[in-house]
Design goal:
The complex is a heterodimer of chains A (497) and B (471).
Chain A (H helix, E strand, L loop, with lengths): L4 H18 L5 H25 L8 E9 L3 E7 L1 H24 L4 H20 L3 H10 L1 H11 L4 H30 L4 H7 L3 H18 L8 H8 L2 H26 L1 H6 L1 H20 L4 H20 L4 H32 L15 H15 L5 H16 L1 H25 L7 H5 L5 H19 L2 H30 L1
Antiparallel strand pairs in A: 1-2
Helix pairs in contact in A: 1-2, 1-4, 2-3, 2-4, 3-4, 3-11, 3-15, 3-21, 4-5, 4-6, 4-11, 5-7, 6-7, 7-9, 7-10, 9-11, 10-14, 11-14, 11-15, 13-14, 13-18, 14-15, 14-17, 14-18, 15-16, 15-17, 15-20, 15-21, 16-18, 16-20, 17-18, 17-20
Chain B lengths: L1 H6 L1 H19 L4 H21 L5 E3 L4 E3 L1 H20 L1 H6 L6 H18 L3 H19 L6 H32 L4 H7 L5 H17 L8 H8 L2 H26 L4 H22 L6 H21 L3 H26 L2 E2 L2 E2 L14 H15 L5 H15 L3 H26 L13 H16 L5 H11 L2
Antiparallel strand pairs in B: 1-2, 3-4
Helix pairs in contact in B: 2-3, 2-6, 3-4, 3-6, 4-6, 4-12, 4-15, 4-19, 6-7, 6-12, 7-8, 7-12, 8-10, 8-11, 10-12, 11-12, 11-14, 12-14, 12-15, 13-14, 13-18, 14-15, 14-17, 14-18, 15-16, 15-17, 15-19, 15-20, 16-18, 16-19
Classes of the chains: A mainly alpha (497), B mainly alpha (471).
Amino acid sequence: MNFPILSCIIFLPLLGATFIFFSRSRNNKSAIYTSLFTSFANLFLSIFLWYQFDKNTSEFQFIEESNWISGLIKFKLGVDGISILFIVLTAFITPICVISCVNSIKKRVKEFLIAILILETFMIGVFCSLDLVIFYLFFEAGLIPMFLIIGIWGGPKRVYSAFKFFLFTLLGSVLMLVAIIAIYWITGTTDVLQIYEIKIAEKYQYLLWLAFFSSFAVKMPMWPVHTWLPDAHVEAPTAGSVILAAILLKMAGYGFLRFSIPMFPVASEYFVPLVYTLSVIAIIYTSLVALMQDDMKKLIAYSSVAHMGFVTLGIFTFTKQGIDGSIFQMISHGLISAALFLCVGVLYDRIQSRMISTYGGVVNYLPKYSFIFIIFVLGGLGLPGTSGFLGEFLVLIGAFQKNYLVAILASVGVVLGAAYMLWLAKRVIFGETNNNEIKKIKDLNFSESSILFFLAFTTVFFGFYPQPIFETINVSVNNLISNYQTDLTMSLININD
Amino acid sequence: MINTLNILLPEIFLSLSIFSILMIGVFLKKSYNIVSKLSLGTLIFTALIIIYSDHLDEKIFNDSFINDPFSNFIKILLLISSIFILNSSQLFIKENKINKFEYPIIILIAILGMFFMVSSNDLILFYLGLELQSLSLYILASIDRDDVRSSESGIKYFILSALSSGLLLYGCSLLYGFCGSTNFEIIADKLNSENTGAVFAMVFILVGLAFKISAVPFHMWTPDVYEGSPTSVTSFFSVVPKIAGLAVLIRFMQVTFQNILIEWQMILIFISIASMILGAVAAIGQKNIKRLMAYSSIGHIGYALAGVATGTNYGYSSSIMYITIYAIMNIGAFGCIFMMKKDGKYTEDINSLSGISQKNPLIAFSFLIILFSLAGIPPLAGFFAKFYIFMAVIENEMYILAIIGLLTTVISAFYYLRIIKTIYFDELKMPFDQIKNLSITSTIFISCLILSTFFIYPSFLNNILSVIFTY
């Protein structure tokens, strides 16, 4: 197929953003319609891509290649079973953000939409790129729109949060840049597929792995560099939180799967104890911290850190169940946390408070809202029948095969997760209404209820019928694991010689 | 003989134009407008002469003047940046009543000096060119002679710069004494690490050059001179002499001192690291935008020197690439500073930028692009500049330099972000005056356009430079 569909998906939002930027109309309506149109067009394109995608091969598909920096780097794009899901997820979340901003963004709507669309370009670019430099380019470029989204449309402490977000992430990433350039001089290329074949010598792997890890750990975020996340989430506007939780955090998990494990298998095996320790600490510690939050957004942010702990744990079990579970957990967390942030946003738009103590007994006045909120709370704690369950369950199965202690400790995290989620629901949705303002507010309007119902439907759908996702990733994950095992045995043979 | 003069054509044309424009300036009253237009025309015409001349790789006048692709590239770069700077600063010059006819003429003389500097293949020609340039710059710094700050900065610049010129001259004389010639290539043949006197001379010359490009620890004059001089002069200072200085430094390192690489490499690494760190840290507390630009330029020179410190052709070309992109960014940034005008008064206070994104969205957006590019965030051009530098640095396995360099980008990102924060996140205090001046806006527009679309075809500069340096 010669049609450059990946470039289309990447640059279509950018085109939309340029169009909005140059449109003379002072009316926000036209900007909203333009961005809705672009983001939906992109969603259809990416679903079409998913449909066209051949699920029976682990080869990269839709490969595009063109000269970029002469003699050094090629502009190379391509997707496999893992990345295509994230592309669809990104294309799915962006229209939701565009719709949600109609209710929550009051000033400079046009600029906000431009930022969201440009961010979509960069995010999809991250998941498509098959060259380390291109990957780094998109990975870092996403900082600019996100920094502005937090800083301009955020809450009272927005400046602090935006700076913390930007500098933490940048600090992690520059080491990755050093590693990328070092890889270029070691292997003579930055093309990921060629590096898979050339195989980096073992002596280099450890430092390179650490450099990549520093970047992904910050982005993931793993304990102890997770502190930017709660701040960023709390201050960001609803749409910003949604994108941050649903997609930006997934870049790191994707990075582990695409780069760290296949390129540095020996080092990945070597650093497993480190990753396990950090993941377990993240799961238990941040769950405990989440229990004690009185700010709803902060609570969900900490729960994200805990859920991401499951993801790293699952990836580094190197078992089929573990990695399948991690990917599923990332997708499902992308849907559920996005929905939870939207739910908080709904209340915040009405009462301008995110404090749990402000609310109570919401169910009496907003029945539709409460129904949906409970669905997502149950999804967040991993109730069977929602997509949240399968991911955690598979990760735990994978972990039990490798290390009992880690698996048991992680299971404790599941219980804690149930505790903070249910307690949140109890304090916000049920109980007595002490605040008279709640009695006056209206239930979900059309746009809110449509996006939330849609998200709830997807969550439950994938909870009962996860087959489409597992089908897509199956071959790629098998290939990843088998390559990993061969690489490890090869290196062991080399040592014995 | 005719052939020799052909090669010198740009310099001859420039000198003749300077004399004739000077006559016009002296004999016509209120001649600023016509003089500045003629000077711009001269610059453009000189650029055309260089572009359309046969690019002969030749040495003339007893091998003291060299005409090679490298010097031609630098000359074109010097001319284009001066054209944009002179053009965009017209309004500022007129409104601040420094529209004396000497102003453009002195800039032309400085450029003539730089031409000889970058084409020199001989210590004497090099020194003459350097002094012609420096003397013009002293006058330029104090061009606003009724203003105390401007005179002060002129004096300060003169005293410190004269000292460094003295050191440099001392180095040149030592070099002549130990090698028996003033010609770069003959010196290069005679040099080796055992020749201690010559190594000594190299250090003196390096000090002098480091002063001219304001690298740490010879940077002290920079913030004061940048702050004190009129903004139009500062914008010239921050770009054009830096390009010439770096080009001469590269010529010295590549030709003259290539045999004693081991001796100067450590010095350059130190200077580079020190400049990057100081440029990043000292700029954090600045409240005056010109002072901040001064520290930022010190930091940027540090990155460019990191490329030189590798001692390879690839490193030299990456550092020329860096300075080219730096020039584009700085011209744009000063274009934005020319727009900082409230109630008819030009302001330099960073706080005065607060919230202007609401009333002056286009300036704010341009500034945003330029600042993110200065901070080196992809996909803007500033990232590629740093990328090439670190490609060269890591190729030579100087990991410490690379890691320190990249960590300082994080620190320096902080103060660029602080300006963006002031523009976008803070509350509006007072909007800027609407300046409708095509020459400023077009300069900013071109700069932003190049910075934001550089990623589409980043090998453009690379291709030119790889021919020049043949790596």
